[in-house]
Write a structure and sequence with these properties.
single chain; alpha/beta; six-stranded mixed sheet; four-stranded mixed sheet; 11 helices; 51% helix; globular
């Protein structure tokens, strides 16, 4: 049986590819478990300095596996446990990982696949892709943190419209409303995103992690609390090897070579 999740690590960049193309990369329980484990391992693997999530074939991710979902119909406890042990772990790992996580949306993203993309730090998509907030069509609410991420990307009223009506948006519209960072022609997507991920992997990893944590904390903080956390985090940055390297490179008029330390 072919692996449902393909992993490639090159130059500090870890690519995780959802590999169920015949099922449009729907999230089976086994794929959810594999993705959750891979992300958890990436958090502490010093060789990993940036992560990219994408799909194999023509779709990014069609959402939850409908066949498996049908088997759990009426089973509230089983569904709760599945979320806590699977999709919630994925969302939490992406959110808490002190490394950048990029979604390369190569094709349509629907339901949990839509929310998986929204959970990532940066999202690029083929301009032929569409994003489907399709939960309402099967009488479900968002998961993978979608109730948190979507309003913060597009605003509360737009998020309600998308979720209550099960709306779909094309990649160009998604870029316009701030749902994604950029839509690109399919022929340009791979090279562009891989270039971004390589650049991220070459940045001072701990600094990116601290900036990511500071922004996430600030979403639920007062301005004064944000200032206090910045002072703490900046103090830590001053103690890193990468800060020393960056400072030396500045005075020596050369490009810094960060090691993520």
């Amino acid at each position: 049986m072919a692996e449902e999740l393909e992993r490639t690590l090159k130059g500090g960049a870890l690519t995780l590819t959802l590999a169920r193309p015949d099922a449009r990369n729907a999230l089976s329980l086994s794929l959810i478990k594999a993705l959750a484990s891979a992300l958890h391992e990436a958090e502490t693997d010093k060789a990993v300095r940036a992560v990219m999530i994408t799909g194999k074939g023509t779709a990014f991710c069609a959402g939850g596996d409908i066949k498996e979902m049908k088997d759990r119909a009426g089973k509230a406890v089983a569904t709760k446990e599945r979320l806590q042990q699977g999709l919630n772990r994925i969302a939490r790992s992406i959110f808490e990982m002190e490394k950048p996580v990029v979604a390369k949306v190569n094709g349509d993203a629907a339901g949990a696949g839509f929310d998986l993309a929204m959970a990532c730090d940066i999202v690029y998509a083929a301009d032929t892709a569409s994003f489907h907030a399709s939960f309402i069509k099967v009488a479900l609410i968002p998961d993978v943190g979608g109730s948190w991420t979507l309003p913060r990307r597009v605003g509360l009223h737009k998020a309600k419209e998308m979720l209550f009506l099960g709306k779909s948006v094309g990649a160009s519209e998604a870029e316009r409303i701030g749902l994604i960072n950029r839509a690109l022609p399919p022929a340009e997507l791979d090279a562009f995103v891989e270039g971004v991920v390589r650049a991220l992997a070459a940045q001072p990893t701990k600094t990116i992690g601290l900036a990511k944590r500071a922004m996430h904390r600030a979403l639920a903080s007062t301005f004064e609390e944000a200032l206090e956390h910045e002072a703490y985090a900046q103090g830590y940055c001053f103690s890193t090897k990468d800060h020393v390297e960056g400072t030396n490179a500045f005075f020596e008029k050369r490009e810094p070579k960060f090691e993520g330390e």
